[in-house]
């Protein structure tokens, strides 16, 4: 067997003939062999699915739960800088040693006769579930990787299930029928358990799916709501339902710098998981919650992993208008299975100059192709580069003190930039 975490990750990439292979039969069999389905992995489990907003919703639930004294564990994907980010206990990343132990458990179970082939994500999910099951958790938080019904995370029956938003993404695997995508995402719901619908623009199939299995539906804008407006940084109020049907309200809540719809959803889900919310604790948690790569400012740079039009629209709303005496740059790198035109169109009103970068790998899109699309849509392309780091190097020679840079389009784009010192024309006050 491999010895180090790096060796395990390399090994796992070679196990299965394809990178994504939807279905639960293989992963369920190995989970049974590992004993992961014999008992709950935590006292309570919340699963989060959706096109956008999964990470921010989960991060806020985690911060809120820990603020209320709960021992939490999280499983998220993908990671930005270290694989260890995918598994945390009480806010601390899993150690290499713990992850290696988990992968060893997965491999022993996988190789029992008959041996089972697992994808990289499936093996990682089983490792994460094993790690969380060892941690004596009050609350486990699981982020769905792709879809819902057939995602490896869905082998766990959640006590509360959340669908955040639904938009067209991963069309190669989920298709372009938004109602069918809604049914796939709603596959994480369980009969008689709370199903939290965290967007007011979800396709009808999501609520229909919840009703069909008699899940307890809690819909944003109906069962729970918030008073937040469009002004970033303004305090807001939350209104929700307790498990007994009583009404709850929390006011004077700070802007967490993440979508307020997702914050409201986090509060409702945590309530349904049995947590009594205290307003001072909620305020403190929302002030301190952080999530790398989501509207993350590093000096003059704003880094956001948004890679579809819905995410780009949110970024465009939150990004300040182009500076009067400077330029609003955008450094963009995207994968070839993403809607580049939709992302570019959403950002065009906020960007004066673009730097396009190539992402490596089979799914990577070239800088030249991005530049052609931006130009055809009326944007100004300043330059192209062979990688995000090379794009940052080009910008280093051009940045003025009044300029800002949005780096976006992919986890891969943001991850490469976060791993390096970003050029600055001045010390920013941000």
UniProtKB/TrEMBL annotation:
Top-level enzyme category: ligase
Gene3D superfamilies: Mur ligase, C-terminal domain, Mur-like, catalytic domain
Organism superkingdom: Bacteria
Mur ligase C-terminal domain: residues covered: 293-411
Pfam families per UniProt: Mur_ligase_C, Mur_ligase_M
GO MF, any single term: tetrahydrofolylpolyglutamate synthase activity
Span of domain Mur ligase central: 48-194
Keywords: ATP-binding, Folate biosynthesis, Ligase, Magnesium, Metal-binding, Nucleotide-binding
Reactions it catalyzes: (6S)-5,6,7,8-tetrahydrofolyl-(gamma-L-Glu)(n) + L-glutamate + ATP = (6S)-5,6,7,8-tetrahydrofolyl-(gamma-L-Glu)(n+1) + ADP + phosphate + H(+); 7,8-dihydropteroate + L-glutamate + ATP = 7,8-dihydrofolate + ADP + phosphate + H(+); (6R)-5,10-methylenetetrahydrofolyl-(gamma-L-Glu)(n) + L-glutamate + ATP = (6R)-5,10-methylenetetrahydrofolyl-(gamma-L-Glu)(n+1) + ADP + phosphate + H(+); 10-formyltetrahydrofolyl-(gamma-L-Glu)(n) + L-glutamate + ATP = 10-formyltetrahydrofolyl-(gamma-L-Glu)(n+1) + ADP + phosphate + H(+)
Enzyme Commission number(s) from the entry: 6.3.2.12, 6.3.2.17
Family: Belongs to the folylpolyglutamate synthase family.
Known function: Functions in two distinct reactions of the de novo folate biosynthetic pathway. Catalyzes the addition of a glutamate residue to dihydropteroate (7,8-dihydropteroate or H2Pte) to form dihydrofolate (7,8-dihydrofolate monoglutamate or H2Pte-Glu). Also catalyzes successive additions of L-glutamate to tetrahydrofolate or 10-formyltetrahydrofolate or 5,10-methylenetetrahydrofolate, leading to folylpolyglutamate derivatives.
Protein name: Dihydrofolate synthase/folylpolyglutamate synthase
